[in-house]
Amino acid sequence: MSVRLEKRFATAPSLVAVIGALCAISGAQDGVSTAGAARTKYLSGLGVIPASREVHVEDFVNYHRHEIGRPKAGEAVALDVRFGNASVAPGGEAILQVGMATALAHDRQQIRPVNLSLVIDKSGSMADADKLVRVKAAMQTLVSQLRPTDTLSIVLFDSEARVLLPAQKLADKDRVKRMIGEVEPGSSTNLNAGLMLGFEQAMRVRDPEATNRVVLLTDGIANQGVTDPESISRAAKEFLRKGIDLSTVGVGRDLNQDLLQELARSGRGPYHFVADPKDIEKVFVKELQSLLSPVAKAPTLEIRFGEGFVLEHVYGYEPRTGKDSVTIPLATMNSGMTEVVLLRLRARSVRASAESLRVSARLSFEDVENGRKTVVSGDALVSVGGIGAWGSLEDRSVAKNLAIAQLAQSIRDMAQRCEEQDYVRAEQTLRSAMGRTAEMYPNLEDEDLKRNLSIAQKYQEALLKEIESRGLSRAVGVDRREPRPCPANLIPNGDFAFGNTGFTSERSYIDPSPNCLWGGNYTIAPAFNAPQLHTNVPNRAYSAPRGGQAFFMNSGTKEAYTLWSSTVSCQPRTKYRIRFYEIGLSGSPEYVNTYEIRVNGQRSEPQLGGDGKYVEIAFEWNSGSSTSATVSIRRLPQAHIGGIIGICNIEMVPSGEK
Questions:
Q1: Helix (H, G, I), strand (E, B), or coil: what is residue 143?
Q2: Model confidence pLDDT, tens digit, residues 303-312
Q3: Rounded CA gap, 64 and 448, in Å?
Q4: Strands across the sheet with 114-121, in order?
């Protein structure tokens, strides 16, 4: 490396120390977009339901730092591929986590120079809640931390845009801070003019060996000049193609969320949302590490699962799925960040228990340090056999991330159901995910889980008020005074919220599709009529009365069989109550099924199912010396073949000491 480059890339110990201290203070990590989580949390405090498209599940999952090893010396990114459990049941589901981590700033010997253009909204609304006062203090703090060799320009905009500080080296920081302190709020919001002027300032002194970035901060929607989001985005992309990156910071409730998200994504930078004006300074200071030390540009993650798995779900992101793979574009990776991608996979077919299934991951990116196209890869194996219920994952970090992802997904699904004005189902969706979290973590102490659970609880409170004000029943076919499910439920996935996993059946599973229940199969679905699973059944939802999904089946034979079974751990010398809800959908009493519950060979009395409505079927069982229980739901012989049924909300809870 030449002497010139050594000077330009010289380390800055005091700056790195400041960044490291700030990282240690906050639980939220730097260098990744967190706007989806921050804005959703902000709106929950106001009791305002977000638009479903604004709830980005990946932002919730990656709000905190992950337990992923940092890359080795000389490497930009480390890749960690793991399953939540060591085994998967034949035909069952498995959780895959692909983790990525970049080197900490103090681990990399060189920090690139910075060409930074700050574009600040000073429209009249910025005077509210002292937002502009705090923004000015934040900018002054940022200026204090930049190096004399860094380049800074500042653009202000309201109805018009003007350059407060032309692009220049920071020879006199005190003068720049005085200029910032004299900024006063103005009138309307010409966002496009400010953004274009900021790009022009950065472009004037663009350096291919530096980090060239514009940071846009705004609290409003463009209402003067060019206001069309597509036109603004198109104009910005012209500068982005020339090597100027863009980060966006939104503050306040009235935002064009889609525009800021798209600008940041196209600009290879993070998008932040500031829920409280007091946090503005933190965002500016945290953003500094990303500004000074981007590590990997244009990263793309490809995950190949081959013929052994079927992809069930990707939590968040904008995945592109192939036959046996999925590709996920990611944002620029900055120094000191961690990020995980979670997938739910289902083993495609029954295999011998000794066999294993392999999944491989490949991350390609441009290494900022050397400008080369770089690829890192990794893989993970999972054996096929056993029950493989992922309701209780062995890997605690994967379990935590999955719990957060499920809560975030429930918030997104809740928002979508509110858009459909189905407030009862929206509340049930949240309640199911919250109950699942309580089952997984009965003594919840993790602050990250608490934060996400609190967001869901606030939305649930708002929905319950809405349901009560509209006089709606919170359950279908069940007295609304029925108590909620006990959080001590021992049955994994008893509400089928996680689909076809955590149990075995003597019948065959089929994905939900129109008329899929003409054969003797079962499926898992949130409603019977979306899509209509059998045309001989009335077009109604028949949703699970206590939330979650339902196990719908064509009983299809006169003989007895076990339609559901699961083995769980239990306490000795304890009395348990096992129950589930059943509904017959064939519209005739002669097709009503009879059931018994079996636990470790003990049997309940035969009990009739429902005819057009859900009924409870229950059994009291004393565990004696047992420390595990195999619980089965058995359909008894009947005179007629056929008959469409549904079961749901399976519970096993302690009811007293023996």
A1: helix
A2: 999 888 999 8
A3: 7
A4: 161-169, 151-157, 114-121, 211-218, 245-251, 271-274
Question: Which has the higher per-residue pLDDT, 4 or 58?
Answer: 58
pTM of the model: 0.66
- What pLDDT does residue 117 have? 94
CATH homologous superfamily for the domain 508-657: Galactose-binding domain-like (2.60.120.260)
Average pLDDT on 246-263 reads 75
Contact of 328 with 320, CB cutoff 8 Å? yes
- Contact by Cβ (8 Å): 551, 644: no
The phi-psi region of residue 642 (left if phi > 0; otherwise alpha if psi is between -120 and 50; otherwise beta) is: left
CB 264, CB 271: distance < 8 Å: yes
CA distance 303 to 200: 39
pLDDT at 91 over 60: yes
CB 240 within 8 A of CB 268: yes
Residue (of 260, 234, 242) closest to 204 by Cα position: 242
- For residue 285, is pLDDT > 80? no
What is the spatial distance between Cα 393 and Cα 343, in angstroms, rounded to a whole number? 14
List the domain boundaries for the chain: 77-106+296-384, 113-292, 508-657
587 CB contacts (<8 Å, ≥6 apart)?
Answer: 537, 538, 611, 612
DSSP structure class, residue 611: B
Q: Burial of 374 by CB count in 10 Å (0-12 exposed, 13-18 middle, 19+ buried)? A: middle
Within 10 A of 505 (CB to CB), how many other CB atoms are there?
19
**∠ CA 142-143-145 to the nearest 5 degrees?**
70
Q: Rg of the chain's alpha carbons, rounded to an integer?
A: 28
Alpha-carbon distances, residue 279 vs 131, 250, 251, 272, 273 (angstroms): 10, 11, 10, 11, 9
Q: Which CATH class is domain 77-106+296-384?
A: mainly beta
CATH number of 113-292: 3.40.50.410
